[in-house]
Amino acid sequence: MNGRLIKTAIVIAMVLISSAWGQIGRRWPSEKKAVPDPVTGVPLSFLTTDPAGDSKIYQTHQQWTADGKWLIFRSNRGTGVQAFAVNEETGEIVQVTENGYIGMLCNAHKSMKLFVMRNPRGDLGRARLGPANGGQEIIEVNLARLFADVAAGTVKVAGDYERLCGTLGPGINTHGDTAVDANDEVIYFGVTGPDTAQLSEGQTLQQVYGPRNMGAGPSGLRSMNLKTGEVKVVCNVGFQIGHVQTNPVAPGEIIFCWETGSKAPQRTWFVNADGTGLRALYPEAPYEWITHEAVFSRDEVAIAIVCNRKPGVSDGWGTAGTPEHPTGLGIVNLRTREMRIAGQVPPGNPGRSDWHVAGSPDGRWAAFDDFQYRLWLIDRHTGETVLLADLGHRTTADDHIHPTFSLDSTRIEVQCAMLAPDNRALDICVVPVPKSWLDRTYSEKLVP
Length: 448
Hints:
Number of strands: 31
Largest sheet: 5 strands, antiparallel
């Protein structure tokens, strides 16, 4: 074989190897490990333990596939940062994207589909901002077909599992915070650009807020019909939009936030898909530090009312977040607008405050993490609040644990560095709600 043929063969081999290692449908053997929590003894089910580190979807979104069997997560164990699925029962791990994505991973609510936004040039990795001139694509990944072919050993090219839902027009800049409607027919996303200058009724243009110099508007919400690709205006607001999420049960309801990098003058917002009903979700007082809202049922949204500073402190964020006023995990009713505090870190506890919050779809439980990266559980009927898992309190972790309940309200997914040799890399972990709690009965039903 001459030198040219040898070089050609090497190039072909490298391409094939790269494809095999970065391809959709690539499998990893189970990494499952059962470990008792070092403090509470609760059995922790670690589904990933790769030293590369794995991160769960943000707690505002559905983590499990519609059949309740697979957890979607992101990792750089493939080529660039890609989306993966782990089967909770078998531990099998499958790569489900190979061309990267922008922002959020969105499980469908009713079907075995995953929706992602990506740049048309197929950039690998999880970019935070897309190109300023638009062109981003919304892609549907058919997970049911992919998993069936993986099981049969007949995996095909990515295009056999992907469908282009639509492409954003020129001039639309998006940060990738996407959320799928409860009916799986529409996806919503935040945008900036010239067409956001015409503000919705009642909105005024805001300047930067706080020491991180973020929060200035305008920005907007847009929707895309996942069948036709049609893009519509939902609303334009005078501030910087951050996390976007949808009501998982009631179609056409969107919850989003004013993003400043920390405290905002008015953090939480609600709007209907047709742009009506734009309002503050929970009208906060200047002394309140509201963050990490998460809608979890048809009528309710959990919010964190944070206690993160001592009385008398005043800095670039003002005087909010002190224990002089009520703090804890609050739950806002979308229909009555009533807010109730469900629970909080006990006085004097080193966890100090709730931070990232969640509620169970059946309305029985709430959960939160604290400043020690530990997991707490609340019985909403009784108000009982217990430390469910210490998780090694790895405050050196690459990110917070971000708890989210399973679809059947029996388990909580977190990400943590408890098993990481470097005390930083994250693993996907599932924590059960104790059987003694699941067996509880009540004379009255809390949530209609």
